[in-house]
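Continuing from the previous page of notes. For each protein in this section, the sequence appears first, followed by its structure tokens. Read the first protein now.
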Amino acid sequence: MSQPINSPLVKMTLLFVSTLAVMASATIAPSLPIMREHFADVDNVDYWVRLVLTAPSLFVAIGAPFAGFMIDSIGRKTLLAITLIMYGLAGSSGLWLNSIGLILVGRALLGLSVAGIMTTATTLIADYYTGTTRAKFLGLQAAFMALGGVVFLSGGGFLAEVNWRMPFLLYSVALLLLPLVLLILPEPRRNSQSSGQQSSSQTQAVSFPFALVVLTYTIAFLAQVVFYMVPVQLPFYLQALTNASASQSGLAIALATLFAAIGSILYQRIKARLSFMSVYEIAFFGIGVGYGLICFANGYGMVLPGLAIAGFGLGLLLPNMNLCLTSIAPDTLRGRTLGGLTTCFFLGQFISPLLSQPLSQLVGLRVAYGLAGILVIVLALVTFVVMSRQKRLA
């Protein structure tokens, strides 16, 4: 029997479902060095192993627009149930597949399932709640996702100590959530209000802030290219620097995720006193300084403060982008505008190893982290120049 939307069971189900997006990629990050050794006889294994981590991001970006159409045609719960099954089966396929090519196919299907899960979970939150209740729950969702990432990353690191395949087992948790979705979540009633919105969208589109939207998309893309160097490259960097184990790499990545959660939790208090631009500057400089510390670290203990500072900056950056776009985009274009942000966000994750791997091979991982930090500082200056002309973004 479905529960009332204010039921703790409904809220916890939505929160647990939301964490699946976080664990989709980074959970297996601590396994990457061991996986590379297992497939050492495969040509270009460094690229293929890193693509195993980031392939879901590309297919989230591809699948998200289609998921938005499917939600309205087959219903929220139906799509969520289908994608949960796909998530559990495709995500755990690395437990038994012996070809890195087939593992990549499983990761692609995992990405498509994440697109459906993310879109449906956020849509259900918007369906169930309004006003301040919705805003607070979306904030709780972001924090819960980040904290869930800490648990999954840490667990993935310890499971990788047993065998590189074991972290894939964590994806089967989606199948445990399936009964909760089917029995507890109510299917919301949907209104068709599109007819009265077309004329307003035409008038509002005239003042659509294209420059700021493009800037925000660019920020999302580059921020993920830079920050995803943590799960993609950090295990290799720590292994070369201190011969760190998989569990140590998992804990280090989890630390960055933990401080990202702290930044997201504190975002509302910080934003209440500062402008969007000021929050961007703090976030960018935090990431830049953090990467600088990683670059100059000479031991495991010195990498951790850099990860914490960079993670905190990212935790401020993500909600600031969402709220900024929500504030500047016309109501009738808000969904598509935020959908574009999701696409840029996950494309950045996918492309990160394609850019960072040749760079790290050319100059080394230490210098690559330093250059990434400089890029973020430059992005901060560009953002200041563009956004300082937009007085409405106070």
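Done with the first. The second protein uses the same format. Note its length before scrolling.
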Amino acid sequence: MRDVALLSLLLVAIAIGYGLGYRQFGRRQHLTQSPTPSSQALSKEYFVGLNYLLNEQPDEAINTFINVLAVNSDTVDTHIALGRLFRARGEADKAVSIHQNLLARPALSQRTNEQIQLELARDFMALGVHDRAQRLLNTVLEHSSDDEHRYAAKQLLVDLLEREKAWQQALEVIQPLFKQHPKLRRPAAHWLCELAIEAISEASRPIAKKHLKKALQLDEKCVRATLLLAEMEMDNGHYNRAIERLDHIPRQEIAHIPTMLPALKHAYLRNNDEAGYEAHLYRLLEQAPYTSIIIALGQLVHQRDGVDKAIELIGEHLRAAPSLGGLDYLIDLYIESQRLNGKPSPDTRLLLLKHHTDALMLNRIRHRCRHCGFASDALQWQCPSCRYWGTIKPVIGVEGE
């Protein structure tokens, strides 16, 4: 239905464009002249196209209108819109054909030519032909004096370089734009994290650290850079420094407290400081009563003081902050308690509850993109759907944290 609606709107636009072009043609004719054969042919083809449209044959209608719609200053926007629609429908090859046909017209203005080159670059990117797209974008950047077109070309070039994982080249293109467009700092910070990961894999840790510090200069809320720096400190045996790094994360983005907990546990336990870990968890719990923190505390108490003390702790915190994950963990504790107390098999009601929570836990969404709503079980630093960086975060609420 959405495709049909878009096509209908586009075809109306084509019809208007045709009308404008036809009216422009008519203005050139003397009022006393009778319709020329060419104008009669245009009129006939126009009504053939409308007939296709009314019979729900949009492809045939589009082709008919393309054949009769002359390319001029009045109709070029309609052709561009048609190419965009084909690209949006996944038919970028048809979009290329339309936009290349426009570029072949020498009478169009420089600004219009640049606009078409940008559209053609988008077409080639959609087809995965990145080298041709890059040549077009470089041409616009070299020859255009239009700030809007130059900015659009830089955005597309950065997108292309990002897709090819050419992080350093993308940084070089985007760096001059930071002052006017501060939102670009966030993706740049993540590209620096990517470069840091590459440097770590090549045993160039000083370079990696430099990249990560630069990332935090660009975006002080870059949780990923802080996590990587903390991991590097732990690799070097500097556990207190790692804990100091991790302690910044709640101030950067409180929703990422669950993301940092495995590293926090590792740092404290490798430092033989279980008491410090427990105290840190209680401090975090004051900031945000997340399920992950409650369960981490429950595991500590369970190991040290036994299952009944853990049940008491978890039950108390779940009354204040109920959650599916917390309930599932509490049921596990109750089942274990019954077994330890000599009951041959757990209460069937507990097993039924456990069956239901297991099913709900299996289907729950753990992470969601705050920009487009994409759901993911594992944390991803770039959303695969909208391709924004740093927008996927743990889900907060009864079904999440």
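What the second structure shows: DSSP finds 20 helices and three strands in the chain. The first helix runs from residue 2 to 27. We return to this in next week's lecture.
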